[in-house]
Write a structure and sequence with these properties.
The protein is built from 19 helices and 7 strands.
């Protein structure tokens, strides 16, 4: 990632010219006559390489676009280190994305049926919490693989290193976010979220759950020493944290902000202030989820934005830099994150569709065994597609969201019906999917 070129002052040298007003009128006319499809929200770093409208230079084109954007922008109670407000606009692209998110994100009716089915929702919830915990940690430097991390969470195994600890912390924090989604966001709750995210995973152990001190300078930089962001001074953080919580709770500003826009701004705010020694990115994304759930977007219990961000982390970082280098215009980050949220919803719907089809495929055989409960049905659906797969009681309990004894009864019952093979592994039982499971099921169903 590189630092984008800072835009030129938008009105530089135009009104200093003798025909400045006449020239600006020509610029403004060109902007007004541009079709909406041609007004993509380019940063100067991108726009300077594109062909401007006829008769305009790149700087004049930039001046016209900035004048239009400034007229539609609204100030936020978030300030930079110099005291200047951040601001945002809602371009047509964001309006369309917000409509799609409203339609598919839990506020309207087009919701995947398995997620609304109490018998299935716990499986989808655990899966999504695992996905977000793993990918959010990987974005912050966790180096374990997805497969190893999922098995650790599913088996309830203790983490072996800092990377696994980060993932387990994230997983438990996401569960906590769901529990407190109806509570107001307070500085104490933010500190508690950070403590949960970072406990036993910091170089400075006592930094979990507290603001950084003046003797703990931090910045955002790469491995080559290029500094991208220096956050506000430590002595400003208590006041800034209180202002952020007022914003999250809807106390500020004095105009309506769409709930998704508020969640994206909260995400940016925490990341900009960088109030902690480490764990800021994970805490910022956790607060995004709190705000979405607090705003009634309940489907976001099942959505992972980090898996989308992880596919293009440079674009994520660039959205921050575009905002900071263009006069605190938060629209860049809003566009990026609205697109991320939309893609994450599409990913969830596609995943549910795949799993629903797999369930329908296995239903013909499994329906012949009416004594199966929904948890056993789900496990055998997986087992049909994965001969030789191993299952244990702790893992089944984690995936299904049930207590150990319920999971134990599920697996022992399946073994008694000879749908799983059972053997000892140390002091515990392990169960495996037999290669001829479909034959066994059909035989039982006759």
């Amino acid at each position: 990632m590189r630092v984008p070129q800072t835009p030129p002052p938008p009105f530089q040298n135009i009104f200093a010219q003798k025909e400045g007003a006449e020239r600006f009128a020509k610029i403004w006319t060109a902007i007004l006559t541009m079709p909406p499809s041609a007004k993509k929200y380019y940063h100067w770093d991108e726009l300077r390489f594109r062909t401007p409208p006829d008769g305009l230079t790149h700087k004049e084109w930039w001046t016209g676009l900035k004048f239009e954007r400034m007229g539609a922008s609204r100030n936020l109670p978030l300030h930079d280190k110099a005291g200047k407000n951040f601001a945002f606009t809602i371009p047509d692209l964001v309006t369309e994305l917000l409509h799609q998110i409203d339609r598919d994100g839990g506020t309207l009716i087009q919701i995947p049926e398995p997620v609304t089915n109490p018998a299935e929702r716990d499986r989808y919830l655990i899966r999504s919490l695992m996905e977000e915990a793993i990918t959010s940690s990987q974005l912050e430097g966790a180096v374990t693989t997805r497969e190893v991390a999922k098995k650790m969470l599913a088996d309830g195994r203790a983490p072996r290193d800092r990377s696994e600890r980060m993932i387990l912390n994230n997983f438990m924090t996401m569960r906590r976010i769901i529990e407190v989604k109806d509570e107001p966001l307070t500085p104490e709750l933010v500190l508690d979220i950070h403590r949960r995210v970072s406990e036993h995973a910091l170089d400075t152990p006592d930094a979990a759950g507290r603001l950084r001190r003046a003797d703990e300078p931090v910045d955002v930089s790469d491995n080559y020493g290029v500094v991208f962001h220096v956050p506000p001074a430590a002595d400003e953080l208590p006041k800034r944290l209180a202002a952020m919580c007022d914003f999250a709770s809807g106390k500020t500003p004095d105009y309506f902000i769409h709930p998704v826009v508020r969640a994206v701004i909260l995400h940016f705010w925490l990341a900009y202030d960088h109030p902690f020694v480490d764990g800021n990115g994970r805490t910022a994304r956790a607060l995004f989820y709190w705000q979405m759930l607090h705003g009634g977007y309940w489907l976001f219990e099942f959505v992972s934005i980090s898996q989308i961000i992880k596919k293009s982390p440079i674009a994520y970082g660039t959205a921050f830099l575009h905002t900071e280098t263009d006069g605190n215009d938060l629209t860049y980050f809003l566009i990026h994150q609205a697109d991320v949220v939309r893609k994450a919803l599409l990913e969830l719907h596609a995943y549910v569709a795949r799993k629903s089809e797999e369930m329908r495929t296995g239903m013909t055989v499994l329906n012949a065994v009416p004594e199966l409960n929904h948890r056993q049905f789900a496990l055998l659906t997986h087992a049909l597609r994965h001969p030789g797969a191993l299952y244990d009681i702790a893992g089944h309990a984690m995936r299904q969201g049930v207590v150990y004894q319920t999971a134990r009864a599920d697996l022992l019952s399946l073994a008694a019906m000879q749908f799983l093979d059972q053997r000892k592994r140390g002091r515990s039982f392990v169960f495996s999917s037999p290669a001829d499971l479909e034959r066994r099921l059909r035989k039982t169903g006759r």
